[in-house]
Every structure is written in C-alpha cells, then in structure tokens.
C-alpha cells in the first residue's frame, strides 16, 4: 500500500475527490479527510452542524455526503491545526481517539500521523500548514494497482501543487509547521483559496 495525499483550497473539490476515490475502489476506511473549520463555515452553513456535533451525531449529508466516509464527519480539534471537520484514520491518529471520544494528542499530531503513514516530513509540514490556513486534506491508503488512478483523481480535482505552495509559504517567511503557533484569526483563514489554483 502507498499513501496518496492531496491538499485542496476548496472543501467541495476535496469532497469530490473523496467520492471519486471511493468510486474507484478505495475503501472508505482507507480514506481520511480533514478540513479547517477555523472560520466556522461548517457551523454557519444552515445545516445544524453545531447541534449535531454537540449531540455526538455525524455530520453526514449536511456537509457533503450521504454515505461512505463523508457520512462520518465530526467536529474536533487537532493540536496545532485548530478546529476541523474530519473523518477517517488520519483524523483519529492525529487527535487520538478512545471509544469514539476525542481525547487530545501530541503536539504536531497531524505531521506525525502523516509521516507514520509514509508521507515525507517536509511534505507533511506543508499539508498541515495548508489545513491550518483554511484548506482541506484528503489522504488515502491505496493498493499499489490503484495508485495511478488515485494520483489521477488528485491531479484532476483542483488539488494544490505542493511544491509551488511550499515556495509561496517560504516566500512569506514560513519555515515549517509550528504546532505551538497561535491559531490564525478568522480574517487570515482562507488566504490560500484566494491564490490561483495550482494543479499537481
């Protein structure tokens, strides 16, 4: 198996990629999605997300999927990233889950979860920073024969060109993901989505 990952500035593009991965034969148990909720977009979209999360319910179709992985989305916080809506193995690994309850995790948990799954550390830092800045991360553990199809899906689904995004971050003085940094203010979230989309 290989871990294939895509960063998206737009949640809908990420959701579409998840659907295509599932349709291509990747089991939803092997896919993970982590989307920033720092600007409360998933709380204020008229879908009763906050009520559902407070009651322990999954977010389901209210956020973007009637079945599969997206039906299990839930609100949580990932150390260093902040509030997210997430589902799948990466989210559980990044925050640590016992019996379905989020119990916290080590600082930099998302970077560690990514590197433990085979993502190079320098890429994991960019992915974590991308989510911290308002993006959505989709990660899949893919059988070798499905890797080309998964890479094609990410390449055609408006995923961010990771090398270009790293360069843009570094040009602004960024040196790496800092799990101890303060959360971005709401007016700073989503700056990446204002950039031109860079396909892989």
UniProtKB/TrEMBL annotation:
<dbReference type="InterPro" id="IPR025889">
    <property type="entry name" value="GSP17M-like_dom"/>
</dbReference>
<feature type="domain" description="General stress protein 17M-like">
    <location>
        <begin position="6"/>
        <end position="72"/>
    </location>
</feature>
<feature type="region of interest" description="Disordered">
    <location>
        <begin position="171"/>
        <end position="200"/>
    </location>
</feature>
<protein>
    <recommendedName>
        <fullName>General stress protein 17M-like domain-containing protein</fullName>
    </recommendedName>
</protein>
<feature type="region of interest" description="Disordered">
    <location>
        <begin position="30"/>
        <end position="49"/>
    </location>
</feature>
<feature type="compositionally biased region" description="Basic and acidic residues">
    <location>
        <begin position="40"/>
        <end position="49"/>
    </location>
</feature>
<dbReference type="InterPro" id="IPR052948">
    <property type="entry name" value="Low_temp-induced_all0457"/>
</dbReference>
<dbReference type="Pfam" id="PF11181">
    <property type="entry name" value="YflT"/>
</dbReference>
<feature type="compositionally biased region" description="Basic and acidic residues">
    <location>
        <begin position="182"/>
        <end position="200"/>
    </location>
</feature>
């Amino acid at each position: 198996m290989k871990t294939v990952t895509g960063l998206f500035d737009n949640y809908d593009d990420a959701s579409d990629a998840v659907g295509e991965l599932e349709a291509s034969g990747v089991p939803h148990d092997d896919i993970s999605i982590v989307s920033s909720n720092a600007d409360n977009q998933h709380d204020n979209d008229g879908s009763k997300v906050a009520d559902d999360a407070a009651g322990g319910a999954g977010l389901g179709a209210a956020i973007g999927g009637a079945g599969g992985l997206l039906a299990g989305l839930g609100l949580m916080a990932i150390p260093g990233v902040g509030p997210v809506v997430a589902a799948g193995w990466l989210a559980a690994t990044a925050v640590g889950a016992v019996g379905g309850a989020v119990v916290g995790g080590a600082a930099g948990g998302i970077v560690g979860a990514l590197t433990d799954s085979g993502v190079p550390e320098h890429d994991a830092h960019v992915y974590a920073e991308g989510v911290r800045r308002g993006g959505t991360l989709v990660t899949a553990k893919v059988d070798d024969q499905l890797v080309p199809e998964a890479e094609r899906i990410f390449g055609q689904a408006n995923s961010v060109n990771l090398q270009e995004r790293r360069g843009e971050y570094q040009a602004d003085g960024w040196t790496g993901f800092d799990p101890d940094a303060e959360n971005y203010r709401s007016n700073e979230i989503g700056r990446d989505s204002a950039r031109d989309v860079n396909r892989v």
